[in-house]
Design goal:
about 325 residues, alpha/beta, D-Maltodextrin-Binding Protein, domain 2, six-stranded mixed β-sheet, five-stranded mixed β-sheet, 14 helices, about 20% strand, elongated, binds 3-hydroxybenzoic acid
Length: about 325
């Protein structure tokens, strides 16, 4: 071979190699489902995640986001994730706790005292450790936590304290730890996914709702229930997941890309709720709403009842409490 042939062959080989290195193994069009509507921070985070993955994969991968329960409720989305029909989702831990009861530990009433402790707990090792149960117990890879604000109660009729919950048809997110908490207060908990709440309140199907400040503002629930009990009785974690079936066929690089990018967005969701909580409370206090407050002592009996049911079902509870004690001490 003369020099120019050799030169040509080397450059062809180098060109081929460069091409192999820049193209990902397989371009993918992923789908991510969630129940929250477009204005909710979770949906905005999902959109930002999709945009980031598109950019970082040089346009090879895309993620289509389906908000507002378009692909079904959370129970249906979990089934789709298990078969691999759906690739990813941002799910309330509520639905997860229906399948893996240990996650109920995150809903111990007054596990945390405020939103800062909730944020720190969800970023702690104790909470992250729980996620390692998801592949075997639910066929999901738990990438990380997000959250919404702490839970409050709104009602059409008088609501000055826990005693006024007696006999009220009270909307809850469909999961067992919260059902058991409200049953213990004497209320009649009515499970209903977020997108159905406004109409149910408007048509009188329910008297009261369990909700966070942010969604109360987004959906204007105060138009239909103008008594608010600021109770801060529970956290409301979210988890970003990838289908276990989909995950096992992804390259190492693609896994890393999805994990890093999703985690950054989930952390930003936690930071958002932490930063805005006071402002949201102020905004609600400025509206024409009758506000009362309640704390851990006011709910003492219901908490004792809850512990009886959930301490045996949620063995991670002591570990989470220890983490909270460390957070408070630091
Ligand atoms: C709910 O109340 O069920 C809910 C609230 C959120 C997000 C998702 C679900 O802020």
């Amino acid at each position: 071979l003369n020099m120019s042939m050799k030169h040509l062959m080397t450059s062809v080989m180098a060109g081929g190699l460069a091409l192999m290195m820049t193209l990902p193994a397989q371009a993918r069009d992923f789908r991510l489902g969630l129940i929250t509507p477009p204005p909710h921070r979770w949906t905005q985070a999902a959109e930002a995640f999709a945009e980031d993955v598109k950019q970082k994969s040089g346009g090879e991968h895309s993620i289509a986001v389906f908000p507002s329960q378009q692909l079904g409720n959370e129970a249906q989305m979990v089934q789709q994730l298990q078969t691999g029909a759906l690739d990813m989702a941002f799910l309330t831990v509520a639905e997860i706790s229906n399948r893996v009861p240990d996650f109920g530990a995150l809903y111990a009433p007054y596990l945390v005292e405020n939103i800062d402790q909730a944020a720190a707990l969800l970023k702690s090792e104790a909470a992250t450790d729980l996620l390692s149960q998801l592949p075997s117990e639910a066929g999901l890879v738990g990438v990380g936590y997000g959250m919404a604000g702490l839970r409050q109660v709104m009602s059409r009729d008088k609501l000055e304290g826990p005693a006024d919950l007696e006999g009220k048809k009270l909307r809850i997110t469909p999961f067992e730890p919260i059902r058991d908490f409200y049953k213990a207060t004497g209320a009649a908990p009515t499970p209903m996914p977020l997108p159905a709440v406004y109409d149910a309140l408007a048509n009188g199907q329910i008297d009261a709702i369990d909700m966070d400040f942010d969604s109360i503002l987004i959906f204007k629930f105060y138009d239909r229930s103008d008594k608010m009990l600021i109770s801060n009785h529970m956290m409301f974690p979210m988890v970003g997941v990838v289908s276990g079936r989909v995950w096992k066929d992804l390259s190492k690089d693609d896994r890393e890309l999805l994990k890093t990018s999703m985690r950054a967005q989930l952390d930003a969701v936690i930071d958002h709720f932490q930063a805005l909580e006071k402002k949201q409370e102020q905004e609600l206090r400025g509206l024409n709403i009758t506000i009362s407050e309640a704390n851990k002592d006011d709910f003492a009996d219901a908490i004792t009842e809850w512990e009886k049911i959930w301490a045996p079902k949620a063995p991670s509870l002591p570990n989470l409490r220890k983490a909270v004690a460390e957070i408070k001490g630091s």
